Amino acid sequence: MTATRRFGATDLILKQGDITREAVDVIVNAANSGLLGGGGVDGAIHHAGGPQILAECRQIVARQGGCPTGEAVITGAGRLGARHVVHTVGPVWQGGGAGEPDLLASAYRNSLALAAAHGARTIAFPAISAGIYGYPLDRAATIALGVARDFALQEQDFTEIRFVLFSAESFAAFAAALRALPGEAAR
Ligand code: AR6
Fold it and tell me: Cβ distance 138 to 177 under 8 Å?
């Protein structure tokens, strides 16, 4: 299952599947501030990518003490079919009044900017915060795609920004949000 819309020079692509199988320049991980692994997509990325990714995360922790919510760091991709993994930390859903929308948007924006700074032309995201962290799927999808659209219209870095959704339910939520995005002229 796929869905696509083009903004500027960038295709926004939705797929249902396992992000660890994507062949892209950068795979984005929905990590936690400690950067030393976890469950969900984080566990899957470390499992598929092998120990090199965790070793690089440990070096980042030693250098800067982790990754604050809304920010991103970058490592190699170990055995994954990508050049880099960007590890970003989305907010834990607390009802929406604790700055969660801005923090989730920052996680996507900082991931795109960091990947672009490393020369990435293609990038794949999971549905950050929409699993263990409990962010409502439809709201998370609207924020994710809104940031991707704005980045695509403002920058020419990416040919493809992919969202790889694990379940049919998350694919459907992202597909509805993609259809609802305003076109190129409107903001
Ligand atoms: N490919 C694509 N998407 C996946 C995969 C996969 N292989 N596996 C799970 N998902 P989550 P969060 C989906 O919980 O909510 C970790 O312990 C999943 O169905 O992975 O940001 C971290 O260490 C959901 O839609 O991330 C943090 O502690 C989406 O990925 C915490 O979880 C995100 O779910 C982060 O929670």
Answer: yes
